[in-house]
Design brief:
With about 190 residues, the chain is mainly α. It is built from 12 helices and no strands. About 45% of the residues are buried.
Length: about 190
């Protein structure tokens, strides 16, 4: 663990990466201290490492990174909180839907869906009309995880979009929603 305190940020990053990939659970507390590191790459890798280690006990510390100056650190924090199933962080993650960073917002949509944040369905559904195709596809998947079957007609409209991400998200979402009894959906899917 001495390399976690090395003067060189690259060495600290490497140490965090090695410990988490080796699955050294005892290192999670030491890694969590690096969430406050002055180097954004160290903070980012510490965030991701705690996710790899499944360190839900450190979810509150990871959630503090949602206010990080670094887009990369914020997006990693949102991703990891969703991965850890940190439902108690749902309200903080919901605020990230307004983040100026595209990837942070994208991961917030996924995280809210995975966390079962049904109270966020109206906000998530707004992204079905977003100008960005990744946001639309991510919103469709989040709504599917949230079992928002009433949004299926809007999701169907993404099937005719020109971008593959929209179409893929819509097809996967409709399959997950299990709306096979809806003839309009089946027709839109080509059946």
């Amino acid at each position: 663990a001495e390399f976690l305190n090395d003067d060189a940020a690259d060495v600290r990053v490497a140490a965090v990466l090695a410990l988490s990939r080796l699955g050294v659970q005892d290192s999670s507390t030491a890694i969590a201290k690096l969430l406050e590191d002055p180097d954004e790459h160290v903070r980012n890798e510490a965030t991701l490492a705690l996710g790899r280690l499944g360190s839900k006990a450190h979810a509150a510390g990871i959630a503090e990174r949602l206010r990080d100056d670094s887009d990369e650190v914020r997006s990693s924090a949102v991703f990891v909180l969703g991965h850890l199933g940190a439902k108690e962080q749902g309200p903080r993650i919901a605020k990230m839907l307004q983040d100026q960073d595209f990837q942070t917002c994208h991961f917030a949509l996924h995280a809210l869906g995975r966390l079962g944040a049904k109270d966020q369905i109206p906000e998530i559904a707004e992204f079905l009309a977003d100008p960005d195709s990744v946001a639309r596809g991510s919103a469709a998947m989040a709504l599917a995880w949230l079992e928002a079957r009433d949004k299926a007609p809007v999701i169907v409209t993404l099937l005719t979009d020109s971008t593959p991400y929209d179409r893929q998200g819509a097809v996967l979402a409709l399959g997950r929603l299990g709306v096979k009894e809806d003839e309009d959906v089946l027709k839109a899917l080509g059946f």
